[in-house]
Design a protein that fits this description.
Blueprint lengths: L1 H27 L8 E5 L5 H10 L6 H11 L8 E5 L5 H10 L4 E5 L6 H10 L3 E2 L7 H7 L15 E5 L2 E2 H21 L10 H14 L6 H13 L7 H8 L36 H8 L8 E4 L6 E4 L2 H11 L3
Parallel strand pairs: 4-6
Antiparallel strand pairs: 1-2, 3-5, 7-8
């Protein structure tokens, strides 16, 4: 009788050993993926539901194996919601590791230097992986909704490439970009030159936005900053075209005419002395640095040469008028 009872036990052990070996084999075998696939796990999904979805898509035939592995490891209740990128060669085991670790797919959005607030909002709301929760695109309401009521929106968001998981909200994205700008501005402000005509870091940010829009040549930033600083110190109007373009808004058609230089706007630096009331675009770190560490010199004027976004710099108005005739009136 003992021998007869021993046989089923041996068979049970052998069956369990075979099942375990088959489970290990299936879990480390590549999923049936012909191309990269984006796999979404919704909040509240169980590991069994995840395994069933993988099987439903035809990638894996043994969903119970995946659930059992999660129970053996004690991680079946630890999976993280989100979007996961699966590439050919991925296994059920690597999928389990991924969703327990929360290695969700990161999406990206780039804010280029020189973008306006309006351009940033358009890009945000066109991005398929950013969830729109803002109730308005009005700058004042947007700033209030992201937690900074009373702040001007223009120029407040740092231009950079941001990576984020799917379903990140527009509010979270803007808060992050705002805080990044505050951090960069604070870092550069601490390293500023002495004797600059700024009453606050915000005024330096306004200046940086003018520099950002004035030149496409990286090596000219500090030189242009020097011209603007000297003009401010001498109580001269800045007379920078990008402020006129900003004041014109959507009516700007690519050309600035003589009458446009007299447009009635606080942003028009041909009519008003000093800095505009707010930045006119998103300034990058290099332009912020230039605004706070301008190049010394004597030039008070510059004009675009039409060559790769570069400028000709002049010390006197007479020299400047000759340069304008040469480069702009030809």
């Amino acid at each position: 009788m003992r021998k007869l009872l021993f046989i089923p036990v041996i068979l049970f052990i052998l069956a369990g050993w075979w099942l375990y070996q088959d489970m290990r084999t299936q879990l480390i075998a590549p999923l049936r993926l012909d191309r990269p696939e984006l796999f979404a796990i919704e909040p509240g999904m169980s590991l069994l539901a995840v395994a069933d979805e993988v099987a439903r898509r035809g990638w894996f035939d043994y969903p119970l194996y995946l659930e059992l592995e999660g129970k053996i490891r004690g991680v079946d209740g630890l999976i993280k919601a989100g979007h996961y990128q699966l590439a050919p060669g991925a296994t059920a085991l690597s999928l389990l590791d991924m969703i327990v670790a929360g290695k969700v797919t990161q999406h990206a959005l780039t804010i280029p230097e020189g973008w306006t607030f309006r351009q940033i909002m358009v890009a945000l709301h066109e991005h398929r992986r950013i969830t729109r929760v803002l109730t308005s695109t009005d700058p004042q309401r947007v700033m209030a909704e992201i937690g900074y009521p009373g702040y001007a929106a223009e120029g407040r968001f740092f231009p950079d490439t941001y990576y984020f998981p799917a379903e990140t909200t527009d509010v979270d994205f803007l808060r992050r970009a705002f805080k990044q700008m505050e951090a960069v501005l604070s870092e550069e402000w601490e390293l500023r030159m002495a004797g600059l005509p700024y009453q606050s870091p915000y005024q330096a940010l306004i200046m940086a936005s003018l520099i950002e829009k004035e030149t496409a040549a990286a090596d000219e930033r500090e030189r242009i900053a020097g011209v603007f600083i000297r003009r401010l110190q001498r109580n001269m109007k800045l007379q920078t075209d990008p402020t006129v373009i900003y004041a014109m808004g959507e009516s700007f058609d690519g050309d600035i005419r003589l009458k446009d230089l007299d447009i009635n706007s606080p942003f028009n630096t041909y009519r008003h002395k000093g800095l505009p009331p707010t930045p006119i675009a998103a300034a990058g770190r290099a332009s912020i640095r230039a605004a706070l560490r301008p190049e010394p010199g004597e030039a008070l004027y510059f004009v675009a040469t039409g060559e790769n976004g570069r400028h000709h710099f002049s010390r006197t108005l007479a020299e400047h008028n000759k340069a304008v005739a040469k480069y702009q009136l030809k």
